[in-house]
Design brief:
There is one protein chain. The longest helix has 22 residues. The chain has three helices and two strands. It has a two-stranded antiparallel sheet with strand order 1-2. The chain is mostly helical.
Length: 85
């Protein structure tokens, strides 16, 4: 099973971004976004902002926070890991 956090997950994410050409590494191993990576970042941010607006439509910030708090408590009640807000 693949970990979703930690060094292995970070390495996998970096490898994926390098493979896509969205990151490059210099001789010292420093990572830099390419033009393609910057363009993808802009597209992804636009998609996330649109989804967030759609999800939050008609829901106040207070209602959203309360819903997250309840869902996180439910996850912890069954032994899951959910960080409190």
């Amino acid at each position: 099973m693949t970990s979703t956090s930690g060094p292995d997950a970070m390495g996998h994410a970096v490898d994926s971004l390098l493979h896509r050409g969205w990151l490059i590494a210099d001789g010292a191993g420093r990572l830099t976004l390419t033009d393609g990576g910057r363009a993808a970042k802009v597209r992804i941010k636009s998609l996330v902002d649109g989804l967030r607006s759609e999800i939050h439509e008609g829901i106040t910030d207070e209602e959203y926070a309360a819903a997250l708090t309840v869902l996180q408590r439910m996850i912890r009640n069954v032994g899951g890991a959910a960080a409190p807000r």
